[in-house]
Amino acid sequence: MSQPNQFSLLSQRRFAPFFWTQFLGAFNDNLFKTALVVMLTFDAMSWTTLSPSLITNLIPGLFILPYVLFSATAGQLADKFEKSGLTRFVKWLEVAIMCIAGLGWMTHTLWLLVTAVVGMGIHSTLFGPVKYAYLPQQLKPEELIGGNGVTEMGTFVGILLGEILGAVLVVQKPNGIAFEAVATIAVALLGLVASYRIPLAPAPAPELKVSWNFIGESFRNINFSRKNRVVFLSMLGNSWFWFYGALVLAQFPVYAKDYLHGDHSVFVLLLTVFSLGVGSGSLLCERLSGRKVEIGLVPFGSIGLSVFGADLYFSSQGFSAGAAALAAGPHLDAFALMVQHGMWRILADVLLIGMFGGFFIVPLFALIQTRCDPAHMSRTIAGMNILNALFMVAAAGLAIVLLGQGFTIPQLFLVTAALNAVVAVYIFSLVPEFLMRFLAWMLIHTVHRVRLIDAERIPAEGAAVLVCNHVSYVDAIVIGAASPRPIRFVMDHRIFKLPLLGWIFRTARAIPIAPAKEDPWLMEKAYVDIAQALHEGDLVCIFPEGRLTSTGEINAFKGGVSKIVERTKVPVIPMALRGLWGHLLSRSGANVFERAFRTGLRSRLALAVGVPVPPQDVTPEGLQERVLELRGDWK
């Protein structure tokens, strides 16, 4: 049965009004901020005596300052109050802030515009916890990746359009400033209208007593999130992305003007390409993840951020030789600059940084939404926003310090890419699950094409035992990649001695087991560990044959599964792997190269999932019959 496309959510009231409300908010933020940055970069003398480089790093810092001060309060409000009503309050606030900005534009008063920057930061701070806590209330688990992808795409398209229109409007003579003032107020009103269509989203903790001590509450939010290690490290990964993005994007105005020798249209071009990259990466996440929360995409995204961030430095160096001739002349517009040698490589790097950023950020959001305490969802998002703000302030500070020490902007790009590589290695060493899922994802998207049959029968929560035929040493990796959540595999203890596979299975917290004749203590310990894992609500997968098949046929199932369900009454889910017989890591005697030639570079596999069997009906013979039926004739 075909799955609905993620864009179908845009026709449903549970998603569409929320989408357009957040889209218009992101659009207006950037319509205003970009106009201000462009004006202060390309017409600085009539507004301030500060250097353009300082201004382009200072304005984002002022915008995110409210995240540090008010995120804890915003998270409490989003958990305590119904979300559609809170959204309308935030939208009314946006209208008021844009009126203040309009007054600043029309009277040429910089301090009013700076006040509006801080005000829009407050607006975004209040809306952030509502935004990401609303989605898991309204969407099904299998819709979260698609919903987050469309939301992130909408956010960055809104950012893109706001940046383009803001940069274009404000430089129009003689009425550009007036156009800008009217446009921001009009967009705020449209967002307000859209917010009145958002359906009710009940408060998860209406009895919550709001603490106005933002410092103490900030520490409490972060400390609460630290109890769930995977969620907290995902929050840190999310914050790191905003550090990376803030460090790179804040340099674009001066990079476009002083290094690429372009006018404001070149700045808009860079932002356009970056936003298209993030939008396309966000949308591709649903297809690449198979409609589940696939955190294997996070390391993939991180690799791309480092590779193409570093290449942006080298492509900028290559461009500099030709740009030297431009330095003495007028600044070129985007069309004139694109014909210069090396410019397309720079644009490709910017596009791919954005795309891999989408691969990085969307699964992290979905992981946080699915694994944190629902009653604490908004406060978890608020805690993440505090971390985001601190990381972005640190990014602005680092940029100011390094540029003050004589670093060029391309060198800053290279430093950012190197830092990203270090941080990625650190985070993935702390949570090996990310790396495990990446290896599994790579396996089933490069070497194999895996078809999943009734994979939704693998429960999204709660304990269960999975049983499957055992064909090759990669069976566990294929099954793990198909599951929406981690699986504890029960594996022969000798596998743990193999150099690569042993590391993989230890990292995945697999449970070693030995035959009773060989090591009765290890066998009994395995059953104790299995019972503990099921008690904690985990999925446990065993291969009841006890060994790899040497003929391609399913060996007799042993009685271990009965012993497991006698101790812990959980359902047993039969599964069957198809197409792995003859694999390089199976015990097939067939010529591997002949098989590879026959099936092509990517072999076809399938994993069929059967109907759960109640614990009282579990027998080894019955399970073997079900697995054989699921496998059919395709080995």
TrEMBL record:
Pfam families given in the database record: Acyltransferase, MFS_1
InterPro entries: MFS (IPR011701), Plipid/glycerol_acylTrfase (IPR002123)
Entry's transmembrane regions: 54-77, 89-106, 153-171, 230-254, 266-285, 297-314, 346-368, 380-403, 409-431
Membrane topology: Multi-pass membrane protein
Source superkingdom: Bacteria
GO cellular component, one term: plasma membrane
Ranges for domain Phospholipid/glycerol acyltransferase: 464-580
Gene Ontology molecular-function annotations: acyltransferase activity; transmembrane transporter activity
Keywords: Acyltransferase, Cell membrane, Membrane, Transferase, Transmembrane, Transmembrane helix, Transport
Subcellular location(s) of the protein: Cell membrane
UniProt name for this protein: 1-acyl-sn-glycerol-3-phosphate acyltransferase
Lineage: Bacteria, Pseudomonadati, Pseudomonadota, Betaproteobacteria, Burkholderiales
